[in-house]
Amino acid sequence: MSTLTQSEATVPTVVTDPLEEAEARHLTERIKETAGLFGDLLVESQVREAHLALGYATWNEYAESEFTESLRQLYRRMDQARFAHALNEAAGITLESTSDPGVTSGQFIDEKTTRRLKPSMPAVLQEVRDAVADGVKPQEAVRRVVAEHGALGPKTATKMAQETGVVVPATDGLMHDGRTEEEETAIGEGLTRAYTVYNALHGFATMSISPQELIEEMPFFEAYKVDDFIEAADAWFQEFKEAWRKRDV
Questions:
Q1: What is the pTM of this model?
Q2: Residue of 148, 149, 127 whose CA lies nearest to 138
Q3: Residue 146: closest CA among 167, 166, 127, 119
Q4: Distance from first CA to last CA of the chain, Å, rounded?
Q5: Of the candidates 104, 124, 127, which has an alpha carbon nearest to the alpha carbon of residue 114?
Q6: How far is residue 100's CA from residue 114's CA, in Å, rounded to a whole number?
Q7: Which residues, 6 or more positions from 243, have their beta carbon under 8 angstroms from its beta carbon?
Q8: Rounded to whole angstroms, how far apart are CA atoms 70 and 195?
């Protein structure tokens, strides 16, 4: 199983003395309950040998018994935590220096991004250090370098764009500017309405026959469709026409 080694990334600073049974049980329950720090706590449970205190021969045996996620997924979570801490260390970010929990806990780096950037991790860390040295704010340096080296998941990209004001590429092939799915849907509906008006105006403007000729072509049994909408359509168009002429350009 391929994971980040301690030579590739700094393990979060934790106490390394073996746990007593009660301490190990308390830590295990914290891991289960604290989703945002799951990876950090998993690393701590491994470094502090929670498995021995709870009677397991190996950490893998402990993890398979105590948690519902697969070993592969748990190791990926720990990779993510180690990578986030390595990035924060490179940028000089600590819990005391930022009020953004998403930075210190690594929530802005998803597992796919971690796997994508892992082969180039030394270069990524150096770029973060160089960016900070050039005057870029630490949090922005981390986010910028991560975005440049690998596309994020759509939700993560949207969150990063909202926080930084920078358009961010994502694994869905789109550039995310921070708008939510609801906002994107509303924009799409607005464009649909606009094109409906464009097409209607174009249709009237390019009609090749006169209104009288068109009336004569219409089947008599379809007349009710015109009767039902012509007055409302005319009123709406007159209002639209007046508003259009007054619009700010």
A1: 0.49
A2: 127
A3: 127
A4: 61
A5: 124
A6: 20
A7: none
A8: 50
Kind plus residue range of the DSSP H or E element containing 196: helix 181-205
3-state SS class at 204:
helix
Encode pLDDT of 216-237 as tens digits. 998 888 888 898 899 999 999 9
Determine the Cα–Cα distance for residues 120 and 218; give it in Å rounded to an integer. 69
Residue type, 215: I
Residue 236, number of CB atoms within 10 A of its CB: 12
Strand partners, 176: 168
Return d(Cα 97, Cα 208) in angstroms, integer.
Answer: 70
Q: How many other C-beta atoms can be found within 10 angstroms of the C-beta atom of residue 103?
A: 23
CA distance 142 to 128: 6
Is the pLDDT higher at 183 or at 67? 67
